[in-house]
Design goal:
Helix content: 40-55%
Number of strands: 7
CATH superfamily: Spore Coat Polysaccharide Biosynthesis Protein SpsA, Chain A
Shape: globular
Structural class: alpha/beta
CATH class: Alpha Beta
Distance between the termini: 46 Å
Oligomer: single chain
Number of domains: 1
Order of helices and strands: HEHEHEHEHEHEHHEH
Low-confidence stretches: 6-12
Strand order of the largest sheet: 3-2-1-4-6-5-7
Radius of gyration: 18 Å
């Protein structure tokens, strides 16, 4: 990618963002998403998570001759979390300081990219979490189910700082994120978004919440599997609640010092 900083360029690394887009068979929407991101001046790392032949052909055609798009191809489908972890580590190795995570399916409003970047530039140590504003396209069951996860996350962090832990539109400080991945691998599937948010909060990473419009496109492709992914999410919350217990004194002390008690 043209103009990217070197991995040891400390000055450039102070704020050098890129976007990471995981994709699994979203061939119809990836070009619009990637081109919109590049139009905001962001280098884009597309992580192909074992897509089918038709999607692979679309991706190959999309990136040919492009310095602003880079394709990382995983040999088999490992899940959204696996694709994002691979993209984050590749971005860190390339010298980027921050990663904007966004889905490939057209759910997220790329017009908000400058707002995410501005918030991250003002608070470079923070994780900037999208807080969805839904229209009538949102499935009611998915919407109500989110509130249960919100309550679990508030218990796991002893805080209301993370207003939505499930939104896949957010911006991460890469040094802290890479360190957390190195400390303990993150989940490889749909439980990734929530667990990384909680673990970065435990790590002391500040949170900024940014309202952003989220839609469910007509005939959109979702890889969420009701029973399998809900079982994973339940196991994740159990693990995180148990992980909160030894951290509770430190979390409460942080809350007291911040004046949010």
């Amino acid at each position: 990618m043209a103009g990217r900083p070197g991995p040891h360029d400390t000055a450039a690394r102070s704020f050098a963002p890129c976007a990471v887009v995981p994709i699994y068979n979203h061939g119809r929407t990836i070009a619009a998403t990637a081109n919109a991101l590049a139009g905001h001046g962001l280098p884009v790392l597309i992580v192909d998570d074992g897509s089918d032949a038709a999607t692979r052909a679309i991706l190959d055609a999309l990136v040919v001759g492009r310095d602003d798009l880079r394709l990382i191809r995983l040999p088999t489908n490992g899940g959204k979390g696996a694709a994002l972890s691979a993209g984050f580590l590749a971005a860190h190795e390339a010298g980027y300081s921050h990663v904007l995570q966004i889905d490939a399916d057209g759910q997220h409003d790329t017009a908000d990219v400058p707002r995410f970047l501005a918030q991250a530039k003002n608070s470079p140590d923070a994780m900037v979490c999208g807080r969805p504003i839904y229209d009538d396209s949102v499935p009611r069951a998915r919407l109500y189910g989110r509130y249960l996860t919100h309550a679990c996350v508030w218990a796991e962090t002893l805080s209301f700082d993370i207003q939505d832990s499930m939104c896949g539109y957010r911006l991460y400080p890469l040094d802290a994120t890479r360190a957390e991945i190195a400390r303990k691998p993150l989940p490889t599937r749909m439980d990734f978004d929530t667990e990384i948010a909680v673990r970065l909060f435990w790590r002391g990473v500040p949170v900024r919440n940014l309202p952003t419009r989220v839609i469910y496109p007509e005939n959109g492709l979702s890889h969420f599997r009701m029973w399998r992914d809900n079982a994973r999410i339940t196991a994740m919350h159990t693990r995180l609640l148990l992980g909160m217990l030894p951290r509770a004194p430190r979390l409460l002390l942080r809350k007291f010092k911040s004046g949010t008690h």
